[in-house]
Specification:
The protein has 315 residues and is α/β, with parallel strands linked by helices. The chain has 7 helices and 19 strands. The structure holds NADP nicotinamide-adenine-dinucleotide phosphate (NAP).
Length: 315
């Protein structure tokens, strides 16, 4: 029986692992499907405090992993298939067909940016295709970019990108945005931003050149197609939280994000904590994920020591 199992290994999971291992909880960490999480598909990270010269997303995750290992975290590159609560209040975690037991679990399985689902999008990811303006916007200084989507994220990404890009074109599949009115107004007033309504991206061009050179747009009204030269494509079509493991153990909101007790990382199940993008549809930054990872570890530590006292006093 382990004290603590941590599932997921982005900034939230690694921060939880660092805190928990420094508290001598000897956590078992399952890195999961996407070890390192979304930062592994990011290039330069310039807004993580403590790195004035910036560093690559994968480097940041590698450093966090080493820091957790240094204090004794037991790290496994395995995928967790099942999480169950046991009658004694502990948890059973199945990974690669093997069962593990722990008294507490921290979930940091993150969220995955939804993709357009095009082959060319996969091939050109990191070569002009991005899902994060905050991470990659800087590389589009003086360039032409499009942002796909009509929600608040698309508005925010488009607005942010005008700091760098010469032109920002929002491509939306309908004739109205779903974003909040205030965000829409800001966008429609910005002279650097144009909108192409009723259109979707049928293909991203530039595979032969190894970088994005344009897009083929398809009208959702009449199916007609046209090409548009462009240097960057940002998909802002929402994120999907990876909450499948806990749908029976935690409350989820209507988008599938885990709901924690306000101001904490505690779920409705005692001993089960959640952190990072899995609980955060709003900020989705590495540093906010790290912050809630820290909260989850401190709460797990308190939970385990209270449980130990209860067992000691026969409660
Ligand atoms: P969202 O509200 O779900 O919007 C996703 C957008 O992408 C929609 O306009 C949708 O089109 C479009 N879309 C979805 N799949 C697509 C596809 N395959 N191809 C083309 N377009 C597609 O997601 P979000 O903008 O990430 O926002 C998520 C939540 O976070 C929202 O509650 C939002 O209010 C909140 N948020 C708030 C702020 C803020 O307040 N500052 C900032 C960001 C996000 P349709 O409209 O046609 O469905």
């Amino acid at each position: 029986m382990k004290n603590l199992i941590i599932i997921g290994s982005g900034p939230a999971g690694w921060t939880a692992a660092i805190y928990a291992s420094r508290a001598n909880l000897e956590p078992l960490v399952f890195e999961g499907d996407e070890p390192g999480g979304q930062l592994m598909t990011t290039t330069e990270v310039e807004n993580f405090p403590g790195f004035p010269d910036g560093l690559l997303g994968p480097d940041l995750m590698e450093r966090c992993k080493r820091q957790a290992a240094r204090f004794g975290a037991d790290i496994r590159s395995e995928r967790v298939d099942e999480l169950r609560r046991e009658p004694d209040g502990g948890f059973a975690v199945s990974a690669n067909g093997k069962m593990h037991q722990a008294m507490a679990v921290i979930l940091s399985t993150g969220a995955s940016a939804r993709r357009l689902g095009l082959e060319s999008e996969k091939a050109l990811y990191g070569k002009g295709v991005s899902a994060c303006a905050t991470c990659d916007g800087f590389f589009f200084k003086g360039k032409r970019v499009i942002v796909v989507g009509g929600g608040d994220s698309a508005m925010e990404e488009a607005n942010f990108l005008t700091r760098f890009a010469d032109t920002v074109t929002i491509v939306h599949r309908r004739d109205a945005f779903r974003a909040s009115k205030i965000m829409q107004e800001r966008i429609l007033k910005n002279p650097k931003i144009h909108v192409i309504w009723n259109s979707e991206v049928a293909d991203i061009l530039g595979r032969d050149e190894g970088k994005v050179t344009g897009v083929r747009l398809r009208s959702t009204a009449d199916g007609s197609e046209r090409e548009m030269p462009i240097d960057g494509v940002f998909a802002a079509i929402g994120h999907s939280p990876n909450s499948g493991l806990v749908k029976d153990l935690a409350d989820l909101d209507d988008k599938g994000y885990v709901i924690t007790k306000p101001g904490t990382a505690s779920t409705k199940t005692p001993g089960l904590f959640a952190c990072g993008d899995l609980i955060d549809a709003r900020y989705r930054q590495a540093i906010t994920a790290a912050g809630t990872g820290c909260m989850a570890a401190l709460e797990a530590e308190r939970y385990l020591s209270e449980r130990e006292q209860d067992v000691g006093s026969g409660k």
